[in-house]
Specification:
The chain is α+β, with helices and mostly antiparallel strands and 224 residues long. It has five helices and eleven strands. It has a single domain, classed as q2cbj1_9rhob like domain (Jelly Rolls, Sandwich), CATH 2.60.120.620. α1 packs parallel to α5 and α2 crosses α4.
């Protein structure tokens, strides 16, 4: 891929993200969150869905993703060199245009933070206990590559740590967004996953994040 072609592709990805943000649906309950659609160009979404990352084998143990850190995949290091779609997405979310849109639309504090993008492939046996992401994460975007028949596999939202409120639809090329706070309870209730559940978890994290190998650009903090 020539530099000119790569630049044009990155610009298309940024344009799609910005258009999805502009059309975002803001919801106030159970806490402020945003739902966005057509997040990425169709060819980029399809390329992400075909990435050859293996599903996490939970060995009957789940509830927290960190229980299986040795099997997790990130858009970082060699992955960015091996898969153009991963690099396009990472560079788009590192770009000034997208960063400024995120801060303007959500109020997220991203100055000095680092981009962390995880690619998740979940299968039956996976579940997540309610948690808030509050701490070193300053922005969370859960991007869904939902396939046909997977609409019920979206993120579960809670009014508090034990009161279920609703479920975001797990549909193709959509995302669920929130700015972590002490009430942004979310998780994944145990249920059958007939075919692999593919998603991309986009976070910005503070300099306190210790696992630098997970960061897309560990030497390039966000500057506004």
């Amino acid at each position: 891929m020539t530099e000119a072609v790569a630049l044009a592709s990155r610009t298309r990805v940024e344009d799609a993200i910005l258009a999805s943000f502009a059309a975002a649906e803001r919801r106030e309950t159970p806490y402020v969150n945003w739902r966005v659609g057509n997040v990425l160009p169709e060819e980029t979404a399809k390329a992400l869905a075909q990435l050859p990352f293996a599903a996490v084998d939970v060995h009957g143990v789940s509830g927290k993703r960190e229980l299986h850190n040795d099997q997790r995949s990130y858009f970082a290091g060699e992955v960015l060199d091996a898969y153009p779609a991963a690099r396009e997405v990472a560079e788009a979310f590192q770009s000034r245009r997208v960063i400024e849109a995120i801060t303007a639309n959500t109020g997220a504090k991203l100055e000095g933070c680092y981009l962390r993008v995880e690619y998740a492939v979940d299968v039956s046996g996976f579940w997540l206990q309610p948690h808030t992401d509050l701490g070193v994460k300053t922005y969370t975007m859960l991007y869904y590559l939902g396939d046909e028949g997977q609409a019920d596999l979206g993120t579960d939202l809670y009014a508090d740590h034990e009161t279920w409120a609703e479920r975001a639809p797990f549909t193709w090329n959509t995302a669920f967004i929130f700015v972590p706070s002490d009430n942004t309870w979310h998780g994944f209730e145990p249920r059958k996953i007939k075919t692999p559940r593919r998603s991309v978890i986009i976070n910005y994290v503070t300099d306190e994040w210790r696992a630098r190998e997970q960061l897309a650009f560990p030497n390039d903090p966000i500057r506004l």
